[in-house]
Amino acid sequence: MQSDLACINVACGARYGITEVLYNCPKCTGLLEARYEFGDPDVAALQRTWRERRMSNAPLDQSGVWRYRELFPFVDDDRHIVTLREGNTPLLKGPRAAEYGGLDQITFKHQGFNPTGSFKDNGMTAGVAQARRLGMKRVACVSTGNTSASMAAYASAGGLEPLIFIPHGNISYGKLAQALDYGARTFQVEANFDQILALVRVLAERLGIYLLNSINPFRIEGQKSIVIEMMDQRDWQPPDWIVLPGGNLGNTSAFGKGLREMHELGLIRRLPRLAVVQAEGASPFYEYMRCEGRTPFIATEHPETLATAIKIGDPVSWPKAQFEVETTNGVVERVTEQEIADAKAIIGQCGIGCEPASAATLAGIRKLTAAGVIARDADVVAVLTGNVLKDPDYIYRYHTGQLKGPGDCPIQPNFGNRPVVVPNDADRITELIK
Ligand code: F0G
Q1: At what angle do helices 217-233 and 43-53 cross, to 10 degrees?
Q2: Is 35 helix (H, G, I), strand (E, B) or coil?
Q3: CA of 142 to the centre of ligand 1 (A)
Q4: Which of 429, 405, 390 is nearest to 339 (CA)?
Q5: How many whole angstroms from 2 Cα to the centroid of ligand 1?
Q6: pTM beyond 0.70, yes or no
Q7: DSSP assignment of 384-406, as one string?
Q8: Whose CA is nearest to atom 19 of ligand 1?
Q9: What is the mean pLDDT of residues 241-249?
């Protein structure tokens, strides 16, 4: 099947070969995306094939990404693919969270069940496949944690050398530990995410290293599988809303592209609306989208939030995300540190853990239902992007009333659950439990 890299800028529309190492359009600097001539496939046959692959023992069929490979047919040789059986993440109900969010029901699509604990694995398996196909030896990324853990795992599994750049002192041990264990060369840089991304782009160019941040179009192709799998799990019935946190906005871009392509192919009959939620201290996309006139995009110079995964002030994929949010008649919301922390505790009470950035979804839903944007009886899927064990320190501090937001602002343990210190005395403990 014909596949190209295309500039998303309609005024430019330049096309490039799928094996060119490009991240931006050389003509106009616009973002690039993979484009295919899908033709007119037999949709029912595809849906049947994808179901049958769930019973297969073949590694690619067992992957919740590559099972749907017909929708991102950019690889020309399956031997380039490295799979750790990513995807295959569940849809979970959370009645307590629904009530808190002002909804009759809510469904969580939990990407934290991935091999390295986040949705990045869906994209990384695709990015690493392309790196191997291109004959790259080294891959690099800047990361607030999840991307680095994921890239380290997939690169090492695929015999590539992973180079990781992280903001010094601003990454959780749960993530740094993974990168070290998976053998990545790890550089802690005295700068924030946006500054380090600019640095890594220079180094990638200079040293011929393949860049695996979400500006890489093949990462986006892999992340499309999150919504494809979601629709398959829902028997191709789209929800009214898909809610997700927004940082660098790669995932928003991937979800929108995946939904559009499924809609154009006739796999789903309508587009769900996207709701993107940002943290108040790192919400340039919210600010940009809320002005009707669309004034120039203004980056946040010093982004601040305890939800480190979305602590990004200059999201590279905002033009793609804008297009996708507008195409789905979507919305962008923002939430405070207190709202994120409380929503996270409520999700936890459902027996479902997630990291702070993921909990921004429920906090956003609560605001959007209160404002009448999302109806109480709407069918809503919130995407929990990362695993609860990324930030155990945050959790302990919240529940014990020690959590402080940016500027040392105390966060109240409104749903706190403090551990109790007791003597080694069965009678005293019996009294307490009674
Ligand atoms: N949720 C989690 C758990 C993340 O790790 C990220 C991004 C996001 C949401 C935001 O997604 O950038 O596609 O809008 N984490 C990156 C990293 C920045 O380095 O791991 P986005």
Answers
A1: 90
A2: strand
A3: 11
A4: 405
A5: 31
A6: yes
A7: E-B-GGG-HHHHHHHHTT--EEG
A8: 143
A9: 98
